[in-house]
Specification:
With 262 residues, the protein is of the alpha/beta class. It contains 7 helices and 7 strands, in the order βαβαβαβαβαβααβ.
């Protein structure tokens, strides 16, 4: 077990699967105390139990993060359990895999029903807004903090569909830059992590195509493969820990060079 996060209290949303689960394991290995949040209580409980069995200090809090009051309950849990909040990782969100739940959620603008648009924006952008609003007064008071807002490379480039998704992710990037400017004087750092195509349930329907020998050279990633959740977790650790004390307002694309070659 390392100690890069020793003594630090973290709120991590979207913790039960994919990038969040890998991040929870990585930060726990480095000594973080974590409030882990997700909507689905059973999946979250299983993920937290696995990390705690390996020696972690993680408390599960199930919540709908598109609701401000429930976000408040999650942030409050960090103070109740650990007495402080050092790091907020706004990782919760829905993407292409969400079409299995709501088939019209990833459509282009002229096709998307407004209720689906509002629903996706509430989860992907609303959760970030609510989390930051709740965490910032605590971090300002203690004179330190690190906020990591997870966007996507699709918030940096245009895309043919999933326009509620791409709009939310683009908004996250510029919101985070504004937070960096406003709250940097209080020693509160705000950064965006923008993953590329990572091998998680969110893009499961495309993973085989992206990694196939006959197509991996054509879809735009110079490294010719999808990323691993653990590779995102390493970037999360960097932004969350004191390794990045002068990093504020950055957009860190972890995408194998996709956006560099777009």
């Amino acid at each position: 077990m390392g100690n890069l996060m020793a003594g630090k209290s973290v709120v991590l949303t979207g913790a039960s699967t994919g990038l969040g689960r890998a991040t929870m394991a990585k930060l726990s290995e480095e000594g973080a105390r974590i409030i882990a949040c997700s909507r689905t209580e059973s999946t979250l409980a299983a993920a937290v139990a696995e990390v705690n069995a390996a020696g972690g200090s993680v408390v599960a809090v199930a919540a709908d993060l598109s609701d401000d009051a429930q976000v408040g309950r999650v942030i409050d849990a960090a103070i109740t359990e650990f007495g402080q909040l050092d790091v907020l990782i706004n990782n919760a969100g829905v993407g292409y895999g969400y079409r299995q739940v709501r088939p019209n959620s990833m459509l282009a603008l002229h096709e998307a029903p407004l209720d689906e648009w509002d629903h996706v924006m509430g989860i992907n952008l609303g959760s970030v807004v609510y989390g930051c609003r709740r965490a910032l007064p605590l971090m300002i008071e203690q004179g330190s903090g690190s906020i990591i807002n997870v966007a996507s490379i699709l918030g940096m480039v245009g895309h043919h569909d999933a326009h509620a998704y791409t709009t939310a992710k683009g908004a996250i990037i510029n919101l985070t830059r504004s937070l960096a400017k406003t709250y940097g004087p209080f020693n509160v750092r705000s950064n965006t992590l923008a993953p590329g195509y990572i091998d998680t349930p969110m893009i499961a329907e495309y993973t085989e195509y992206l990694n196939a020998e006959e197509t991996k050279a054509s879809w735009g990633c110079p490294m010719g493969r999808t990323g691993r959740p653990e590779e995102i977790a390493d970037a999360m650790l960097y932004l969350a820990s004191d390794m990045s004390t002068y990093v504020n307002g950055a957009v860190l694309a972890v995408d194998g060079g996709f956006t560099a070659s777009s």
